[in-house]
Every structure is written in C-alpha cells, then in structure tokens.
Amino acid sequence: MKAPVPFGQYVPGDSFVHRLEPRVKMGLVAAFMLMVFTVEGFAGLAVAAGLAAIAVAVSSVPPRIVVRGVRAVSIILAFTLIAHSLRWNPATATLIRVGPIGVDAQGLITGLFFVVRIVLLVIGTSLLTFTTSPVRLADGLERLMRPLEVVRFPAGEVAMMLTVALRFIPTTAEEAEKIIVAQVARGARFDTGGLIKRARAYVPVLVPLFVNLFRRADELATAMEARCYRGGEGRTRFTESRMTATDWVALALGGITMISTGVVL
Amino acid sequence: MTLSLTGVDFTYGAGTAFATRALSDVDITFSPGEVVLVLGATGSGKSTLLRIAAGLLVPDAGSVTLDGRAVRGPLAVVRPGVGIVFQSPEMQLFAESVAADVAFGPRNQGLSEEDAIVEARRALDAVGLDPEEFGPRSPFSLSGGEARRAAIAGVLAMAPGYLMLDEPTAGLDPSGRESVRDIVTAARESAGVVVVTHDAEEFLGHADRVVLLSEGRIIFDGRTEVLVQNPGRFTEAGLRAPEVLRAQMLAQDAGVALPRFALDPTEVASLLAEAWSGPR
C-alpha cells in the first residue's frame, strides 16, 4: 500500500517549529549536526536526543512519521553496528566467539554510539523538511546564498531549480508507484531472483519513468516561459520572509545550547 | 469463472493520522461475458475497487474469490486471470518495439518467446493495430490513441478472463474514444469486462449492468435498463445523468408524458413524438 507521507515530505501544520523562519531552522539544524558530530560520549548524545525529542514534540509531527524516516536507514544502522562490533581476531573478542569471528564489547558500544549518532542526524534533518514547505525551504536557501551573487553565483536560478526539484519528488515517487503497479498487473516481479535479475526487472519501470520525467520537464519549461519566466535576476518575491524577534531568540538560545553542548560534552 | 468481492473494506494509510477510507462493506460479483460499468465521482473508491478485484491490493476486511478460490496476489499471472488497464496506460510502455512491449505480459505468464509473439500479434489485431506495421515500431513514436490501443493490447495479450479498464477514454479524441469503445464491445466475446469511469455518457449504452459508488459504498447495482428508468440515482452518486436522459427529464418536468426513458436517440425521438401527438 502506498505510504501517505514519503520520507522527508512536508507535513502541513501550524506549530512553533513550522512558523520559524526557514533560515533559522537551517541554522539550528547545522548547529545540531555540529553538536552530534562533536560530542564524545553518550551524555552528549543524550542531550542531543532530549533536544530532538522536544523539537519533535513541539513540531506536532506525528512521531510515527519520524520513526518511519529512521526505518528508511535501518540497513545503514545495522551495517554500522555490525562493522564496529565484529572482530576477526577471536583473541580480542570478549562477548561471543564463532570460528575466526568474534564480537567485542568495546566495538559494540562504539557501534551503538555511531548508530545513535546517525539516528539523531536523520531525525534532525528530516524535521527540517517535515516542517518547512519546499517553497519556503528554497526561499530560505536563496536568501542564504544571496551574498554569493557578488561573485556571480546564480542564487535565484539555483533556488528555482531546488524548488522545482523538491516539488516533483513526491510526484515522481507517486508516478513510479503507479508504473510499478501497472507492470505488476502485467505479471512483472520485483521480489524474486538475484541482485542482477532484480535490477533488470526495474527496466520496465525506469524507462517510462524517465521518458515521462523528460516530457514533464520540457512541458514545465515551456509553461514557465509562457508565463514570462526569464531567470532569477531582478525577480521580486510574492511573500518576503522576515526574521522576527522569536526567530532571533530561538536561533540564539538553540545555537548557544547546542554548540556549548558539543564543546563541553 | 466468477469473480466475487465480499464484505470488502479498504483504508489507505490505516492506523495513521492520514487514514482515508476508500471502500466500506462492498459486495459485488462479476460474471463472464458481461460488461459492467462502475460509475462514481472522484474519490468514490472506483479505482481501489478495481485494484482489489485484480489482486493488486489486499482488503483490510472481506475476501476476493475467483471461482470460489480465495485470491492471493496479482491475478494477472494466471491464465485466464484478471487484466487491468490503468488510467493513461500508455505511460507504462517501455520496450524497444510495440510487439516486444505487448509480449511482456505473456512472457511473464511463462509463455515461450514464440507463443508470446503469437499472442502479441493476436492482441494487436484485436485493438485494430496491424502487427506488420505497428509491431516493429517504437512505442514512443505512436500517437496518443495508438499508444492507448497498444497498451490495451498489452493486457489483452495475457488472455484475461476479466478485462478491467480504469477511465479508458480519458484524454482521447472522439475517434480514439470510439476505438476504445469498440475494443470493449469486442472483448466481451472472450472476457468479462469492467469499465470504471466518472463519465456516465461514454459507456452507458454499452453496459449490461451498472454499479454506482458513493463514498466507498455501493448505492446501486443493477441492469442498465433499470438505472435508465431512475436517472435520479446519478445525482445521488454525485454524477450528472447523460444528456439524453437529462433532456427527457426536462421534457417530463415540462409536462410531456413520456411512457419511459430511453438511451437511444432514435427511440427517444419516437417516444417524444408519441407523447406529443398520441400513439400513431
């Protein structure tokens, strides 16, 4: 059955987190990532987890949607844990020994540390996209990139590209799902055989998906030109997002808390 | 070979904040050689009904049986199973030639390369595309109507016991729509046909039976003639009655005593003439 909210897709709402200026959220996410990467022990991760839990609670994003985002990286989490835990020299393995392979307690703890770190990174970054619509996200990015225009960086065009790309992620996912179902209805199987057979089974999905994407891109470009789009230079915005006092306070408090946690713990 | 849905419930995103009930307690049976028209407004559950009947979605409650046997998994892989033509099916064309694309289904059913090609040629013939001319062509070089017919051929090549079509004429020009109606009429010779649409006008005259869906529930399931005599049922389903019926309703409201309603314009003209001048 189709997932109602794909990983990373905007969840409409009017929470405090939703209302924050996108640049503030991006700044806070950057500070959060810095904290998660710099803390050296579980105490630091516990603080990060606490902050993430508060942010999720305040955001009104249903926790099961956040959990689904974490589940999407479960293979990476499992690989991280196994890669850190296994030892090829059983003499150093203290927990389990099976032939030439053993599990080391210290390795298991290190693995858990990295697993928690990845989970927190996923939650922190996905909360940004869950609570910020693609258009506001692109607006925020454009404003962050605007100073680069002095070195002729095309901030407006890049922002428009991002807006269009983000806008079409759910559409493309929906279209891929439709094509998969249509090919399954013609007897195609995607869950049998080895890796190469499974990869080849996706040809009947990828060919029409790309053909439709190129066609849509062409139509969109024509439609934008027909509505007088001429690039980013000199363009004004329908809604200008401005920093409020709440935004500045949230940025200062959140930033200081996270960076100091990263430095101290 | 009877296809039955009994007590079927289905909810998208069940157990989440985004749960949307699509079907509630649906009982319906399809029989071979019959053309059934499933009508309903957007979001009434028509497409979900089709997917469940084809074994592509598993109902939350209730059962789907083919000849009394419970259905588990897509019914396309069995011969004769259920072939389903989705909205804009030309979007699923992918192979280097029309013949190879149409043969995709039969090959998945386990037919040999030669047999699959034979089935593909038969199906292309059935939809009015000459296999010699269209078989070697790239599917991406076809016109909209030709591509739609090629996509339908891809399902017919699987020799389905039931052919299910979801809004099969959407986006086609008048001649393309007529071709699809001809395909539906011809398909009933070898299969049960189920057409899902919100456009009552298009297929009503070709259907033996009509099912009206509203908010996931069946509010009418009966012979076409019965529905034609009760055109108010279209409004109950959130639909507009076909123009030919609306004209007769308006005539009746204006005081013309029609003995019955009819779909065929010639018959309607005769009924109106009789009502105005008395029996000849």
Structure described in brief:
The complex is a heterodimer of chains A (265) and B (280). With 265 residues, chain A is mostly helical.
Structural features:
heterodimer, A: 265 residues, mainly alpha, 3-stranded antiparallel beta sheet, 11 helices, flat, B: 280 residues, alpha/beta, Rossmann fold, 4-stranded antiparallel beta sheet, 10 strands
How would you describe this structure to a colleague?
The complex is a heterodimer of chains A (265) and B (280). By secondary structure, chain A is mainly alpha-helical. Chain A has a domain at 16-165 and 249-264. Chain A is built from eleven helices and three strands; from the N terminus they run H-H-H-H-H-E-E-E-H-H-H-H-H-H. In chain A, helix 3 (42-59) packs parallel to helix 6, helix 5 packs antiparallel against helix 6 and helix 8 (155-184) runs antiparallel to helix 10 (203-226). The longest helix of chain A has 30 residues, at 155-184. The two termini of chain A are 44 Å apart. Residues 1-5 of chain A have low confidence and may be disordered. The mean pLDDT of chain B is 90. Chain B has one domain (3-224): 3-Layer(aba) Sandwich (Rossmann fold). Chain B has helices at residues 46-53, 98-102, 104-108, 113-126, 131-134, 144-156, 174-187, 200-203, 224-228, 232-236, 243-253, 265-277, and strands at 3-12, 20-30, 35-40, 61-66, 69-70, 82-85, 162-166, 192-197, 209-214, 217-223. Chain B is globular. In chain B, a hairpin with a 2-residue loop joins strand 4 (61-66) and strand 5. With 280 residues, chain B is α/β, with parallel strands linked by helices. Chain A binds chain B through residues 1-5, 62, 64-65, 175, 178-179, 181-189, 203-205, 207-208, 211-212, and chain B through 12-13, 16-18, 20, 51, 54, 56-57, 74, 76-77, 83-84, 86, 89, 91-95, 104-105, 107-109, 140, 154-155, 158.
